[in-house]
Amino acid sequence: MAVTVHETSLTEAADRLWEELPGHRVEILNGSIVATPPPDGSHRNTLSWVTVELHKAGAREAGLRYLQGIGLWLPTGPDDYAVPDFSVVDEDYRDELVEKNCYAPHVFRLVMEVTSSNWGNDLVTKVETYARAGIPAYLVVDRKHDEVLMYSGPHGDEYGTRSCYKRGQAVPVPASVGVTLDLSVDTLLDGD
């Protein structure tokens, strides 16, 4: 009996997986496909609340846009891309479309992930990946460990600064983002 093996590119496999798992976020990180299930209500509430806080802080007037689920083209491999939960980007980000609805890393000021079932990616893989992409600030709402982490100052595949915030504290958004804003850890973890 002959077995036929169909070779497919990583991108084609990711596209097929995306079609087969509606509502899942499919990414290619360091040459591996990662599929994340749809977020829960608290996760979505957190993203909505951050949107409102950025608006109140004048982010649009500062030339920024804040978006959920926008693609980020990564320099870590020929097919690598991520879809952060939330991003703050330059207002002219549309001019920097690379491919597959993903934009060049230099238009991203901050990316944010709210942990879910695959929290290890957010706490390890994406820290290195986003640093290598030169993303100035990476905010992780770590619901598994009940804390919020802010990474800033990317250099190589790591961030120069890692700050950990606990309940009752506020997370200052780094100046590199372009707005002055403190975010409540409790609201980030629990949603609004």
Shape: globular
Number of strands: 14
DSSP strand content: 25-35%
The tally of helices reads 4
H and E order: HEEHEEEEEEEHEEEEEH
How many angstroms does the end-to-end distance come to? 59 Å
Sequence of strands across the biggest β-sheet: 3-6-9-10-11-12
Helix content: 10-25%
Mean pLDDT: 93
Radius of gyration: 17 Å
The helix/strand class is alpha+beta
Low-confidence stretches: 1-6
Largest sheet: 6 strands, mixed
Could you describe the 3D structure shown?
The chain is α+β, with helices and mostly antiparallel strands and about 190 residues long. Helices cover about 25% and strands about 35% of the residues. The protein contains four helices and 14 strands. The chain has helices spanning about 10-20, 40-55, 120-130, 185-190, and strands spanning about 25-30, 30-35, 65-70, 70-75, 80, 85-90, 95-100, 100-105, 110-115, 135-140, 145-155, 160-165, 170, 180-185. The strands form four sheets. The chain has a six-stranded mixed β-sheet. A hairpin with a 2-residue loop joins strand 1 and strand 2. The longest helix has 16 residues, at about 40-55. It is globular, with a radius of gyration of 17 Å.
